[in-house]
Specification:
alpha/beta, eight-stranded mixed β-sheet, 403 residues, 9 helices, six-stranded mixed β-sheet
Length: 403
């Protein structure tokens, strides 16, 4: 087994979470090596739609409330994060402050939307009820059959592919050691302490701090006992990218509806998604999914049928038993988890990086953001799974979590 010189911090995973952590850590004076199993930014993050939508994503239950609190906090940090990243990389990240419309197309969906409205208002969230005519005044291309809409004015979007490109540049300029096609097979340890990681080809990389940010692949890394693991599973999503040959103009606001969403980009492209399937790492798209996504979108925005299909992709969301992220120290000293973000990886990336950095380096007394990030760690404690049954059946999503 070959080995390389020790790294102060090893980050496993080259998606938006891993690169955000690596960039921030290097900027704060740490020597960081980032390991990616494939090509940087080509996994789950690349397939994501990029919605920054804590209000639209709000769900009932304790887990939903934890994710909402994290999402609201992270959404507030996104404008500053985007500005700093754009300055570091000299490239746009495609942040669009458009708001989000939640739509109902029949009486049953309208009744459910009314229930969702009351739920969000009970939480103090900013949301506006719109008649169908008011929604069409904002987005004239919406279908006449629209029954009701809710508007979340502070839910926006970003282009994940632009973010990933900017993060790669920022990491490289900051001095992060970026290693692609370096799949980590095992966490190395001496008793109850991490000593580094081993790659699939046998190379050993020594380090006393390891962050596992490998998304749905985090749970496949060996070297951990059952009580030390976080039960992460892949939740498959099929998603389409469409293009309007006439350019932008069909839609300016993010649309969410029963069965999916449609997210506009600045250049006349649109992201239509996404299925939620417990299919493991099945990468094969299906005709049925394409049909359902296009049918549902067409009923609310008929013009979508005139768009060109540029790409059909399959991605894997990293889900946990309660579909809340695992961020923080595990039971093994020196090992930090930053995974399990499910549908909110893009939204939670800036906050996750701050939470991990607050854990790795004690914040200055006057650093309010870092102190607040540290206080949030208890809600994402990876150790919460340690006493649970981690049989394959138990790792599936809880009833009612998928919609």
């Amino acid at each position: 087994m070959s080995s390389t010189r020790p790294a102060e911090l090893i980050v496993v995973g080259g998606g938006i979470i891993g690169m955000a952590i690596a960039w921030r850590a290097q900027a704060r004076g740490m020597e960081v090596t980032l390991l990616e199993r494939g090509t940087l930014g080509e996994g789950t993050s690349r397939v994501a739609a990029g919605m920054l939508a804590p209000v639209a994503e709000a769900e009932f239950g304790e887990g939903g409330r934890r994710v909402l609190d994290l999402g609201l906090r992270s959404a507030q940090t996104w404008p500053r994060f985007a500005a700093e990243l754009e300055a570091a990389a000299e490239a746009s990240v495609g942040l669009l402050r458009t708001g989000t419309l939640l739509l109902a197309r029949d009486p049953d969906e309208a009744r459910e939307l009314e229930r969702q409205l009351e739920f969000r208002r009970s939480l103090g969230l900013e949301v506006e009820r719109l008649r169908a005519s008011e929604a069409r005044a904002r987005e004239p291309a919406l279908a006449p059959a629209l029954r009701l809409a809710l508007r979340a004015p502070e839910d926006h979007s970003v282009d994940p592919r632009a973010v990933l490109g900017a993060l790669r540049t920022a990491c490289k300029r900051a001095g992060v050691v970026l290693r692609e096609h370096a799949p980590v097979s095992r966490v190395e340890r001496a008793g109850e302490r991490v000593t580094g990681v081993s790659l699939a080809d046998g190379e050993l990389l020594a380090g006393s701090l390891v962050v596992l940010a490998a998304g749905p692949w985090s749970g496949l890394i060996e070297g951990l006992e059952a009580r030390e693991r976080v039960p992460v599973r892949p939740v498959r999503g099929q998603i389409m990218r469409l293009r309007d040959p006439a350019g932008p103009g069909l839609l300016g606001t993010v649309l969410r509806f029963a069965g999916g969403y449609l997210v506009p980009r600045r250049d006349g492209r649109y992201v239509l998604g996404a299925t939620v399937e417990e299919q493991g790492f099945n990468e094969r798209p299906t005709a049925g999914a394409v049909h359902e996504l296009l049918r549902d979108a067409h009923e609310l925005l008929p013009g979508v049928s005139e768009l060109e299909i540029e790409e059909l992709a399959v991605g894997f969301r990293p889900g946990t038993p309660d579909n809340a992220p695992a961020i923080g120290a595990g039971t093994l000293e020196g090992l930090v988890w930053a995974t399990g973000h499910y549908r909110n990886g893009i939204l939670l990336a800036p906050l996750t990086a701050e939470m991990v950095l607050a854990l790795l380096a004690a914040p200055d007394a006057g650093d309010g953001d870092a102190l607040a990030a540290r206080e949030l760690l208890h809600s994402c404690d990876p150790v919460r799974f340690a006493a649970q049954d981690l049989s394959p059946e138990s790792v599936r999503a809880p009833v009612g979590a998928l919609r």
